[in-house]
Write a structure and sequence with these properties.
The protein has four domains: 57 residues, Annexin V, domain 1; 60 residues, Orthogonal Bundle (Annexin V, domain 1); 77 residues, Annexin V, domain 1 (Orthogonal Bundle), CATH 1.10.220.10; 70 residues, Orthogonal Bundle (Annexin V, domain 1). Helix 6 crosses helix 8 and helix 16 packs across helix 18. The protein is an all-alpha fold. The protein has 20 helices and no strands. It is elongated. InterPro entries: Annexin, Annexin_repeat, Annexin_repeat_CS, Annexin_sf, ANX6.
Length: 316
């Protein structure tokens, strides 16, 4: 359900040459760079990087960074990295320096599949020669940290065989760990929301509503707080619908004054080959305007053109 597909009749060395020519001499042909890179799949872009290296002995990403600037540069460079390395770079930036970008950590770790998490951990190790878990432990605290570490294991159950007894038990355990208890048993929330399969959890949420009379989200808001609460709500949203979670993140990144460009870039790049069509559909239904139009009104220049190519179409 992605908006970006493999380019037919792809030729890596031809593309490498086209990019080389677009950057040769004084000033670069940004339009040519944009058109080429946004119409190739990630796998193809990686091959172009390799071809560029062997044809010109230069690093394509480094050349693009040198030629381009600002948000457009960030977007194009993100597209050139394999997804796991892109995630690794985002997380590295989120925990580097003073202060932490918790929203970025939440978004990536709450939404990725087991396999994507394993690939991310390996890419982080490869790119930075550091252990991701250790870095996150050093940078976060409390229950927020504990839940991130559980998600980092990438060990969510994946079978779709659901036991009714266990669904009832989990719903009851969550109710007893929160609403029915003085104080909250956070460990129970972490265990159930961090480990169970999505299929199972959807039924647990239905059962929870039935026995407590309120949606699990409302209980989480009442029982938990701070970044831990935000993380748990993100996990619940991704369990219910990843596409809806991202539609909401995109909307929030653009509504009001100023645009959260890093969020916008990260989501448009990471979802362009996975579920962009689903995200667009949910966005259109939920906000009564198309994602395409919102991007168009909210951004400008080559940056805008590239984002619109990744969006892939207008649903108005």
């Amino acid at each position: 359900r992605g908006s970006v597909k493999d380019f037919p009749g792809f030729d890596a060395s031809q593309d490498a040459e086209a990019l080389y020519n677009a950057m040769k001499g004084f000033g670069s042909d940004k339009e040519a760079i944009l058109d080429l890179i946004t119409s190739r799949s990630n796998k193809q872009r990686v091959e172009i990087c390799q071809a560029y290296k062997s044809q010109y002995g230069k690093d394509l990403i480094a050349d693009l960074k040198y030629e381009l600037t600002g948000k457009f540069e960030r977007l194009i460079v993100s597209l050139m990295r394999p997804p796991a390395y892109s995630d690794a770079k985002e997380i590295k930036d989120a925990i580097a320096g003073i202060g932490t970008d918790e929203k970025c950590l939440i978004e990536i770790l709450a939404s990725r599949t087991n396999q994507e998490i394993h690939d991310l951990v390996a890419a982080y190790k490869d790119a930075y020669e550091r252990d991701l878990e250790a870095d996150i432990v050093g940078d976060t605290s409390g229950h927020f940290k504990k839940m991130l570490i559980v998600l980092l294991q990438g060990s969510r159950e994946e079978d779709d065989v659901v036991s009714e007894d266990l669904v009832e038990q989990d719903a009851k355990d969550l109710l007893e760990a929160g609403e029915l208890k003085w104080g909250t048993d956070e460990a129970q929330f972490i265990f159930i929301l961090g480990r169970r399969s999505k299929q199972h959890l959807r039924l647990v949420f239905d059962e929870y509503l039935k026995i407590s009379g309120k949606p699990i989200e409302r209980s989480i808001r009442g029982e938990l707080s701070g970044d831990f609460e935000k993380l748990m709500l993100a996990v619940v949203k991704c369990v219910r619908s990843t596409a809806e979670y991202f539609a909401e993140r995109l909307y929030k990144a653009m509504k009001g004054l100023g645009t959260r460009d890093n969020t916008l870039i990260r989501i448009m790049v990471s979802r362009s080959e996975i579920d962009m069509l689903d995200i667009r559909e949910v966005f259109r239904t939920k906000y009564e305007k198309s994602l395409y139009n919102m991007i168009k009104e909210d951004t400008s220049g080559e940056y805008k053109k590239a984002l619109l190519k990744l969006c892939g179409g207008d649903d108005e």
